[in-house]
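Lecture 7 notes. Example A: sequence first, then its C-alpha cells.
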Amino acid sequence: MKQELFTLAAQMGFHAALIPTEDVPVDGKFRAFCEENLCGRYNANYSCPPDCGSVEELHERLLRERHALVVETVHPIESYQDKAAVLQAKTSHNKAVLHLMEEMHRRGYQGFCTGYNGCPLCEPCLRTKNLPCRYPSRRISCMSAYCIDVASLAAHCGLPFAWDPRKLHLFGLIAFRSGNAECPSPTGGTYEKS
C-alpha cells in the first residue's frame, strides 16, 4: 500500500514520505504565527485558530491517526515579495492536497489533511458571517495551526526544504488510520519516501 500512496502522490505532482504520526514534530510556539494574523484568517476561518482547536486538541487529533503521508510541492517564484504568486501557489497546493485526500478516501483510507493558509473552499469563509461551515469534513487547517515544525519534518522525511528566494517549498500532511500501509516503527527513527 505504501507504493500505492507514493504513486498516487507522484501522479498529483508531490514528493512524498510516509511516517508514523508520533514522529511528526509539534511545538506549541508555532501557534504564535497564527496569532500574528499575517494571513488575515485568524478568528475569520473555521480551519484556523481559535476555531480549529487548541494546540493540545489538534495534537491529540493528529495522534489519533496512525500514519502521516507528508507531501511537498515546489513552486518557482520571482521572490517572496510577489504576494500574488505566493498566494496562488499556496492555493494550488492546498487544492491538490485536498484532491489527494479525497482520492485516498475513495480507496479506503480515512483521515484529515493540513496545508497552508487555512481552508480555501469558501471565500470568504462563512465564519465571517457566523454561519456554519459548508464542508466540515473537507476543511484543511494550516500546518501552523497544528504547530508542526515543517523544517524538522522535512529533514526527518528526507524531503528537500530551503528558504530559497526563487523556489517556494510547500508541505502538507494527510493523517490517516485505515488502509494497509505499513509505517516504519516510531522508535526506529526511519521513514519511507517516494
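Example B, a different protein, same format:
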Amino acid sequence: MTASSRTTGATRDGSEKMRAAEFFKDNTGFYRKLGVLVLPIAFQQFMLAAVSASDALMLGVLSQDSLSSVSLAGQVTFVFNLFMSGFATGTSILAAQY
C-alpha cells in the first residue's frame, strides 16, 4: 500500500464522518419530532416494567405460588401488548392509505 492510497483512504473516511455529522446536525427538527413520538412509548414500557417489578416485590414476601402466578400473568400481559401494538400499527398503516 502506498502512502498516497493511505492518505486517500484517510480523507475519504474523514469526509464520510463529516457528511454523517452534517446529516445529524441538519436533521434536528426530525429528531425533535422523533423524540416527541418515542418518549411517551418508552415511558409506557418503563411503567409496565415498573408495575411488574413492584408486583413481584410485593408478592414475593407472601408465597412462591403468588409470585409465580404474578410472573405468569406478567408474561401473558406482555404478549397481549405485543399483539395489540402490532394490530394498532397495522391498522394505522392501512388507515393512512385512504
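Note on Example B: Residues 9 and 15 are 10 Å apart (CA to CA). The mean pLDDT is 80.
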